[in-house]
């Protein structure tokens, strides 16, 4: 058996999911006109927040769904993105591209070091060590009294784009976030469909066999871990601009758990599912929060029912319904 024939391929399953992603992006593009027609501009900010978390969920799914790496400290990269905006802005660097570059560089270094250590473990040990590194980052930013510590830090303005303050407009910020989501989805789609992605999937299924035929699981998983962390930090940059506020709460272990819930709800190992899971989770949070102060209870019941009756999440439910029609 050669390495080329041993690497699994997921090509047949990608086409319908790609169509689903295109439908989602079209619907996202229609949100601002609908919101303006409803005369409720605040909904634009909620929608922007949803798109930013969709980026983070998709980045996590790249390593969780395709690399079988359950990172419970992934929200740390959200924090790096938010604080890149705050810290650089305090020094007069407000250009969003420079802030994104700073967030990516810090995240890449952190992911490289912590990933190299974490990937020497497996299973629950990997989960716990990523949680530990995430909490280390969390408490580090709590100690930064110059940036509000545990109370957080308000931004005086949003990031600029080549000197222009166009992101001060909520609709422009929304479409900028959507553009980043689409670009990163295209990148992830390319990665998953590439030889690298197929090797990563093979490692998920049987790392011993992949190593036996000449692939190094450690190198491939570490590369995916770094890419995922960098992508998540970009979501943090956008979240900071959406909220105009940064806080260590963005990088708490609770937030990491929420990202995992989004991926599970949407369907593990499906990029489109991760996006849909983020949308579903945050919309449920908003709707249930308006109905009752005990919304977490009802959300938990919904999640349990989803896992019991559709283990592959929303994606699996949709594919099952499509199969019945056909």
Automatic annotation (TrEMBL):
Membrane spanning stretches: 47-68, 75-91, 97-117, 124-147, 173-192, 259-283, 295-318
Lipid bilayer topology: Multi-pass membrane protein
InterPro entries per the UniProt record, alphabetical: ABC_transp_permease (IPR001851), LivM-like (IPR043428)
GO CC annotation: plasma membrane
Compartment list: Cell membrane
One GO MF term attached to the UniProt entry: branched-chain amino acid transmembrane transporter activity
Record-linked CDD domains: TM_PBP1_LivM_like
Main location, first listed in the record: membrane
Keywords: Cell membrane, Membrane, Transmembrane, Transmembrane helix
Protein name per UniProt: ABC transporter permease
Species: Roseivivax halodurans JCM 10272
Species lineage: Bacteria, Pseudomonadati, Pseudomonadota, Alphaproteobacteria, Rhodobacterales
């Amino acid at each position: 058996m050669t390495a080329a024939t041993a690497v699994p391929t997921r090509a047949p399953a990608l086409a319908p999911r790609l169509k689903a992603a295109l439908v989602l992006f079209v619907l996202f593009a229609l949100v601002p006109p609908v919101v303006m027609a409803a005369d409720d501009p605040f909904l634009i900010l909620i929608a922007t927040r949803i798109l930013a978390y969709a980026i983070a969920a998709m980045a996590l799914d790249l390593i969780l769904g395709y690399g079988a790496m359950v990172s419970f400290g992934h929200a740390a990269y959200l924090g790096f993105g938010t604080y890149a905006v705050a810290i650089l802005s305090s020094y007069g660097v407000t250009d969003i591209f420079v802030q994104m570059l700073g967030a990516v560089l810090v995240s890449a270094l952190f992911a490289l070091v912590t990933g190299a250590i974490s990937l020497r473990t497996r299973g629950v040990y990997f989960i716990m060590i990523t949680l530990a590194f995430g909490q280390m980052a969390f408490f580090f930013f709590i100690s930064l009294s110059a940036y509000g510590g545990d109370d957080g830090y308000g931004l005086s303005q949003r990031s600029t784009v080549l000197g222009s303050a166009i992101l001060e407009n909520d609709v422009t910020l929304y479409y900028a976030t959507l553009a980043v989501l689409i670009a990163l989805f295209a990148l992830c789609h390319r990665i998953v469909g590439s030889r690298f992605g197929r090797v990563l999937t093979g490692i998920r299924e049987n790392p011993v066999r992949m190593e036996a035929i000449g692939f190094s699981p450690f190198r491939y998983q570490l590369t995916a871990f770094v890419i995922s962390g960098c992508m998540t930090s970009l979501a943090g940059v956008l979240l900071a601009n959406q909220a105009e506020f940064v806080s260590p709460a963005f990088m708490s272990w609770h937030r990491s758990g929420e990202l995992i819930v989004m991926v599970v709800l949407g369907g593990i190992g499906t990029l489109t599912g991760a996006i849909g899971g983020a949308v579903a989770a945050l919309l449920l949070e908003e709707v249930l929060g308006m109905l009752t102060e005990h919304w977490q209870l009802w959300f938990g019941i919904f999640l349990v029912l989803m896992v019991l009756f559709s283990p592959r999440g929303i994606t699996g439910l949709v594919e099952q319904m499509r199969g019945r029609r056909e």
